[in-house]
Design brief:
The structure holds 2 protein chains of 2 kinds.
Chain A (H helix, E strand, L loop, with lengths): L1 E4 H15 L3 E5 L15 H5 L4 E3 L4 H13 L3 E5 L3 H16 L1 H4 L9 E6 L14 H4 L6 E3 L4 H13 L4 E6 L6 E4 L12 E4 L4 E5 L2 H17 L3 E5 L2 E3 L3 H11 L2 E4 L8 H13 L8 E3 L10 H7 L3 H11 L4
Parallel strand pairs in A: 2-3, 2-4, 4-5, 5-7, 6-7, 10-11, 10-13, 13-14
Antiparallel strand pairs in A: 1-8, 6-12, 9-11
Helix pairs in contact in A: 1-7, 3-4, 8-12, 9-10
Chain B lengths: L2 H26 L14 H10 L6 E4 L4 H7 L3 H8 L23 E4 L6 H15 L5 E6 L6 H12 L4 E7 L2 E2 L2 E2 H4 L16 E5 L3 H16 L5 E6 L17 H8 L3 H11 L5 H25 L26
Parallel strand pairs in B: 1-2, 1-3, 3-4, 4-8, 7-8
Antiparallel strand pairs in B: 5-6
Helix pairs in contact in B: 1-10, 1-11, 2-3, 2-8, 4-11, 5-6
Classes of the chains: A alpha/beta, B alpha/beta.
The structure holds thiamine diphosphate.
Amino acid sequence: MAEIMYWEAIRRAHDEEMARDPLVICMGEDIGIAGGTYKATQGLYDKYGPERVIDTPISENSYTGLGIGASFVGVRPIIEIMSVNFAWLATDQIVNSAAKVRYMSGGQLEAPVVIRSPGGTAHQLGAQHSARMEKVFMGIAGLRVVTPSNPRQAYGLIKSAVRCNDPVFINEHELMYNMKGEVPDEEYFHPLEGSEVARKGRDITLFGYNVSVHWCLQAAETLAKKHGIDCEVVDLYALNPLDRVGIRESVSKTHRALIAEEAEPAVGVGAEVMALINEECFFELDAPPVRVSAANVPIPYNHGLEKAAIPNAGAVVQAVLKIVGKV
Amino acid sequence: MNAADKKRLLREMLFARRFEERCYEAYVERKIGGFLHLYPGEEACVHGVMEAARPGVDYVITGYRDHVHALKCGADPKAVMAELYGKESGSSKGRGGSMHIFDVKHRFMGGYALVGGPFPLAVGMAKGIKLKGGDEISICFLGDAANNQGTFHESMNMAAIWELPVLFVTENNLYGIGTRIDRSTAVQDQYKRTCGYNIPSAQADGQDIDQVYEAAKIAVDHVRSGQGPYMLELMTYRYRGHSMSDSNAYRSKDEEQMWGKRDPITILRNRLIEAGEMTDIDYQQLDKEIIESIERDIIAFCEASAEPDVAELERYVLAENDPWVKGGVA
Ligand SMILES: Cc1ncc(C[n+]2csc(CCOP(=O)(O)OP(=O)(O)O)c2C)c(N)n1
């Protein structure tokens, strides 16, 4: 198994799927000749040509709709939206066309598109470049939402998403493109539903997705070493649908839960996971579930303020200590 | 078009007219719910254009005023009416309703309720056609007010730079709900608006099917021959309000009467009678047959059809048994 970077894993998935099926195309701003802002499509333009690796104009709603329309007639587009902040412009087509078309046509028409976009707060990009949209999209019936936390997932999720007949939104992260991790050498398809136990533990479950999985893993290390608390970390790589069974199983084992999310708390991933825990295993709980979320602010530019707005491993540690009554 | 074609078109247009008048009644009887946007007055548009194209083969997409477009593409009128009734036998299994008629088998790729939404979808279908190498074309029927959406411009631009086989048909009925075009649109001749994208275009009388057909032939030939997109503007008028909830009080009686004299069905009928191809009695007979058949075949079917099973509420949200959901394991 080779160690490769997150962006390389994404690139490999594109390349393999495009080599396999001439109707797999990719499209987005700067993805062709420039090879993609995060290198996700590097070299593909030379290999597959401008008809299949399409540099689009800056027209997010319409090029996303164009990809959706192409999928109506059998094309399998992978649409890159340079940043989820611009995906707000495309929400009309993603929600009103892609997510609803199967249902409103009574199962006649489907939109097998993949929409990839990095979200999250990076380094001082300011409010209009720090959006986190996963909580918006995970609430849309008919749209699958997955969010890879490592290169293996990034590679396998794209491969499955391209072949799946539903529209899939893949939430990536600006800060993760250079992260290294093991990816199988042979072809690998990651399930689009479910969750993964990233670390086994007894005392509390820390739920994370994408970048917050890493906060949880880091926190779990600290908590084990310094406080003797054994955390289980569950990676919710699929946000729609959420893994009810996996969430129940882990909470039934540890009896305590914390959800770490990168966005504001209201109407968010944490809120949804807490509601699920409430529905599925309320009587298993030894303590109320807790959220570790961003501050309720547009993300500030100032470095110190930005840091204060977004949670981290330290915030997870503090919250866990509170839950188990150690502070 | 020969006389036989014209007679068939007269029948199709009259059928569409009576079909929609029956929709109106069914709505008043509360058999049909939601919004209902009717097409009477505009029938020559879709019939003339699709006569020059290939119904059931070329891809067609439109907005919410979509019943007649579906019929012309080949949709079963029973299924279309049943969809309006919200029945399981409806073309979208009762999940879509009036604004979301689909008949993918006949390449009627749907009616969409968001104004301007279909533009990029149409361009995308054209991209798919080009990639797959077929000689089908993608045809997008939308109203004049839709052209003020950003998607119009973004889509025109992309269709032009990639020379995609897409025909935009603007059915210019002069109104977006109750707002007349001169109050919403800087350039009222819609066909002029595509010059900013180097897309050829033309304007034609949307009430005269012969003229629609002639203009559409040029448009369709252009697109099908690989020369890229084209826009055809058809000047037309809807007789009824925008939807059933529209009192239609914003239009003058004079204006309505003027357009009433230019009825597309009357124009074609008179032309056929003058040419000695049919008599007024033939026409009356045809009309009577159509009205009876709608009642006997279509309404009866809808009344007898079952409601969707509530246990299937969550069906059609996601693909069923898609192996890739489980990582490729069936
Ligand atoms: C995005 C969006 N905005 C507003 C509406 C409400 N609306 C429905 S139809 C319509 C007028 C559209 O007129 P036009 O495109 O000329 O088509 P016509 O109804 O005349 O056939 C409006 C404003 C909508 N459905 N979608």
